[in-house]
Amino acid sequence: MSAIDLRPDACLIDGEWRAGERWLDVHNPADNRLIARVPALGARETQEAIAAAARALPGWAALPASARADALMRYHDLILAHRDELACILTAEQGKPLAEARGEIGYAASFISWFAAEAMRAYGEIIPATQADRRIMVIKQPVGVVAAITPWNFPAAMITRKLAPALAAGCTIVIKPAEQTPLTAFALGALALAAGIPAGVVNIVTGDPVAIGGVLTASPTVRKLSFTGSTRTGALLYAQCAPTVKKLSLELGGNAPFIVFDDADMAAAVEGAIIAKFRNGGQTCVCANRFYVQDGIHDRFVEAFAAAAAALTIGPGDAPDTKIGPLVDDAAVAKVTALIADAKAKGAVPVGPQRSPTGRFVPPMILSGAAAGMRMLEEEIFGPVAPVVRFTDEAEVIGLANAAPDGLAAYIFTRDLGRSWRMAEALEVGMVGVNTGAISTEVAPFGGIKMSGLGREGSRHGLDDYLELKTMTVAL
């Protein structure tokens, strides 16, 4: 048993755990069982959290980068030391299989260690001056107080992907986790305190999303907002931030095409499809949403893909053999079932053995004969359903893939080196996986173009989003 209480079930403001007068219920999505009640805070408490972050900012920013890095590495080590406990908390409130939850905790920790190292590489520069008696220098300084609004599908990794670069840069942060998954956030807050990160540097508030979001976006003290979530909500936050001209990182919706050419390695393509489509039950922003398969391989791929999907075990996340857990809530189930009904009514045909949804457990489904006009080709499914479209050549599939307003991720399977380059360069997305269904890593920039957002997270570029450039011109 951990000596650190990972279930404070309270909000973290200025180093103290705060309860409230009202509460939010947290349910296990597998059986809708009540597992916790957490504070339902509002505008006043959010303002207090911002004020705490502002007070902590000068001291944290003034620390040598190496001192911030040391604190982050202590934090990293504590996260990994409590990996199993964190995974259990995550699975209980989010639903994903325990193996995936453990993987997410490791992924979350990787951002902490990566940015601990990057903290010491926020280099400035010297610019050759235009006058003999002038010297021009550029330094990088922290943006200031940062707000982070995070989603329920990756409740650990989406926090650390924002928190780690913010703290590495010398910023302080106010985090608003999703209402469905606050417990993982609280556990990460407890470990931040245990790692010696000073009071006020990390603050966590839960409650009314409209009230909290309104304060975070309106506050002139908050100089940057980082949000991961739907395009609709991101656009609203974008507009709300305009009056205070904040820096923004917006990682929004995706509609990733998964493109399989005739010359693809069939086994690799099927394996990649299973990973890209069914990880977290299809509830990921980089999830393969539209499958385009070339004529020559179409029938064989669909048959093999359906057989592999049918072998996936569905069940509660804490069951040992589970590969696909429940969808997060009833609204998610209603959306996915409506998309399936729409596709079937317009001619799509299920392939392979069919299993009916039970409660929030939606079995994986492969739909052949998908075509333009079906909602699931135009909307983010966020569930374990794969519509497959047949195509003829590169030009056709590029047009189909780029027709979407989103531009987050894409996947290509081909053994033709030239084609892989042509396709990767032509697709209007921020990330491309070539012969792989797994593209997320702390060392590479993560983000999209078009309606999928602004900015990049992870990699060395992720630190820059939390820094401002300052030019110093010195007369000798």
From TrEMBL:
Could you state one GO cellular component term attached to this entry?
Answer: cytosol
Keyword Isomerase: yes or no?
A: no
Q: Which GO terms describe its biological process?
A: gamma-aminobutyric acid catabolic process
Q: Name the PROSITE patterns on file.
A: ALDEHYDE_DEHYDR_CYS, ALDEHYDE_DEHYDR_GLU
EC number(s) recorded for this UniProt protein = 1.2.1.16, 1.2.1.20, 1.2.1.79
Q: Where is the active site?
A: 251
Q: Where is the Aldehyde dehydrogenase domain?
A: 21-471
- Entry annotated with the keyword Coiled coil: no
Q: Which domain of life is it from?
A: Bacteria
Pfam families hit by this protein: Aldedh
Q: Name one GO molecular function term.
A: glutarate-semialdehyde dehydrogenase (NADP+) activity
Keywords, A to Z, come to: Oxidoreductase
User: What family is it from?
Assistant: Belongs to the aldehyde dehydrogenase family.
Protein name, as recorded? Succinate-semialdehyde dehydrogenase/glutarate-semialdehyde dehydrogenase
To which species is this protein native?
Answer: Sphingobium vermicomposti
